[in-house]
Design a protein that fits this description.
The structure holds 2 protein chains of 2 kinds. Chain A has one domain. Chain A contains 11 helices and no strands. By secondary structure, chain A is an all-alpha fold. Chain B is α/β, with parallel strands linked by helices. Chain B folds into 2 domains: 218 residues, P-loop containing nucleotide triphosphate hydrolases (Rossmann fold); 78 residues, Alpha-Beta Plaits, CATH 3.30.70.980. In chain B, 37% of the residues lie in helices and 30% in strands. In chain B, the strands form 3 sheets. In chain B, strands 6-7-8-3-9-10 form a 6-stranded mixed sheet, with helices on both faces. In chain B, helix 3 crosses helix 4 and helix 9 runs antiparallel to helix 10. The radius of gyration of chain B is 25 Å and the shape is elongated. Classes of the chains: A mainly alpha, B alpha/beta. The interface between A and B is medium-sized, with 18 and 23 residues. Bound molecules: adenosine-5'-diphosphate and magnesium ion. The site of adenosine-5'-diphosphate has 10 residues of chain B, from helix 1. Chain B: Belongs to the ABC transporter superfamily. Chain B: InterPro entries: AAA+_ATPase, ABC_transporter-like_ATP-bd, ABC_transporter-like_CS, ABC_transporter_ATP-binding, DrrA1/2-like_C, P-loop_NTPase. Chain B: This is ABC transporter ATP-binding protein. Chain B: It holds the Pfam family DrrA1-3_C.
């Protein structure tokens, strides 16, 4: 599992796409933090809002485009290996579960590191790292990574997961946030499986996202176990 | 101990039964050749053993453990058919990554040693995307042995290689066997299997039609030993009796001047024939015996 995780992690950092994504995130974090104080002058803020002002930039970005980022880098993490049959070198050496988990942890580590660097950059201005917001954001990413792995296992065509990644990535936040607040009982139950619903409270309900991720990984594992490669 | 054992192992795709209830055992230390034409079902069979695909019915065990089993994988080396490697990794990176995945991380020295064995010593740092077909195949074999597995599955290890490389690989496979590995390889090349394998199964349409050592297979098919005899002129008086005797002893008798060709079904007949010639006071200058090659057997079936 750790070997796969390491490989996945290194792979992500080697790609040009990931470097651009990370740089973009870092630049947004840096400048939004830098200018947040300037911008917020003249706006009435509550104490907690004022406290979180520095992280607004990166939060907005990950809330709105997080799935798109994760998907663009990792949508084909499993199905590409199925298509190119490199997966055969993995499944003949280790359990299928450790392949799924290895990929999951590898991708998580990549985003964990990226997010840490972003938050450290922000702390230059805010003079502190907001651990709670960091964990909330990470829980969102963990949910999204698990979802992407699940889709990559279910859907065999990388071009399809790419397409789906863009569609879902663009609509997910809007739909998710709408679901969280809608009173339409026919659809509002769906909010319980979207990650946003668990981010609005300032408590540890965000842990639900990690639980949902575990469930998605378990499903992915069961499907992958039955797959012939 | 049987390193590989299958019981009624079968595989169907829809209504097509590709592998038909195969019972097979392979002993430790064997270099087992699975021979069959394209489409015979060789890859389907080997892929079931290596856990790439699953049997429709029947069971198998590897190293005494019922499969599929994740623990056994660590002691198994596999070169599957038609598998591309990672084009963005170098040969060296492949060996490091894959050996670590098998739980037996290879040192740089070990990687170089194995690259040397397959003839890729000068290409360790090259990205596999730039490799030729033959080089990829060699790396495919290298990755199958890098972690020093007990049992090695090779699906057509030499197909598509130039003759020189093919010989290098065949020698390598033989050496692996000498070092105590059990090797299960498939091939559609008779001469290769004939040359290196200690046990051979001939597969056709998803069934094993014959199994044994090369000698056993030959013995079974020995009904077609062609004997060519060069002899001194046969005295007129003896000609009729000798030819009559020969015709009863064998078949396809062709007579030429002071030589003849005949097909017999048993090696012992050759000695009897020589005695018959002697009794007729005919000297024998030369006896050429042509045993059937596996190719004849193979094509016959
Ligand atoms: N996934 C599959 N679906 C349907 N038929 C298959 C599949 N894989 C192999 N076959 C069929 O099984 C037969 C045996 O194939 P294979 O095992 O690859 O033969 P070999 O390796 O001996 O050349 C072929 O007729 C092939 O078309
Ligand atoms: Mg084949």
């Amino acid at each position: 599992m750790f070997v796969i995780a390491k490989r996945e992690f290194i792979n992500l950092f080697k790609g040009i796409k990931s470097i651009i994504t990370v740089l973009f995130l870092l630049i947004v974090s840096y400048y939004s933090a830098k200018f947040s104080e300037v911008i917020s002058i003249g706006i009435e803020l509550t104490a907690s809002e004022a406290e979180g002002i520095h992280t607004v930039g990166i939060l907005t970005l990950i809330l709105l485009l997080g799935y798109l980022f994760v998907a663009s880098l990792s949508h084909n993490t499993v199905n590409r290996e199925m298509e190119e049959r490199t997966i055969r070198f993995l499944i003949t050496r280790t359990s299928r579960q450790s392949i799924i988990l290895g990929k999951f942890f590898g991708i998580c580590l990549f985003w964990f590191v990226t997010l840490i660097i972003s938050f450290l950059l922000i702390s230059i201005f805010s003079q502190k790292v907001d651990l709670f917001i960091f964990l909330q954001t990470m829980s969102l990413l963990i949910y999204q990574i698990a979802l992407i792995i699940l889709l990559s296992v279910i859907i065999l065509k990388p071009s399809l997961t790419m397409f789906l990644g863009i569609i879902v990535g663009l609509s997910f936040p809007a739909v998710g946030i709408w679901l969280a607040f809608t009173s339409n009982t026919w659809v509002s139950w769906i909010k319980f499986i979207t990650p946003y619903y668990y981010l609005f409270n300032e408590d540890y309900t965000f842990v639900m996202n990690v639980i949902l991720a575990v469930i998605m990984l378990a499903i992915a594992n069961q499907i992958f176990k039955r797959r012939e490669c | 101990m049987n390193v590989i054992e299958t019981k009624q192992l079968s595989k169907s795709y829809g209504s097509a039964q590709i592998i038909k209830a195969i019972d097979l055992s392979v002993k430790e230390g064997e270099l087992f050749g699975f021979l069959g034409r394209n489409g015979a079902g060789k890859s389907t069979f080997i892929n079931m053993l290596t856990g790439i695909i699953y049997p429709s019915s029947g069971t198998y065990s590897l190293l005494g453990v019922k499969g599929p089993n994740d623990q056994v994988k660590k002691r198994m080396g596999v070169m599957p058919d038609y598998s591309t490697l990672y084009s963005s990794l170098t040969a060296m990176e492949h060996l490091k990554f894959l050996s670590a995945l098998s739980g037996n991380s290879a040192s740089k020295v070990r990687c170089k040693e194995v690259l040397n064995l397959v003839g890729l010593q000068n290409h360790g740092g090259k990205k596999v995307g730039k490799f030729s077909f033959g080089m990829k195949k060699k790396l495919g074999i290298a990755q199958a042995i890098i972690h020093d597995p007990k049992i090695i599955f090779l699906d057509e290890p030499t197909s598509g290689l130039d003759p020189e490389s093919a010989i290098t690989i065949q020698k390598l496979i033989q050496n692996l066997q000498k070092n105590g590995k059990t090797i299960f390889m498939t091939s559609h090349n008779l001469h290769e299997v004939e040359k290196i394998c200690t046990q051979i199964a001939i597969m056709k349409d998803g069934q094993i039609i014959k199994i044994g050592t090369m000698d056993e297979l030959r013995a079974f098919y020995r009904s077609k030993i062609t004997v060519k005899i060069k002899h001194s002129p046969i005295p007129k008086a003896e000609q009729l009796t000798l030819y009559e005797w020969l015709e009863s002893a064998g078949s396809d008798l062709t007579k030429e001047v002071n030589s003849l060709t005949i097909t017999v079904d048993d090696e012992k007949k050759i000695a009897e024939m020589i005695r018959a010639f002697n009794q007729c006071k005919v000297d024998i200058f030369r006896v050429e015996v042509e045993e059937p090659s596996l190719e004849d057997i193979f094509l016959d079936e």
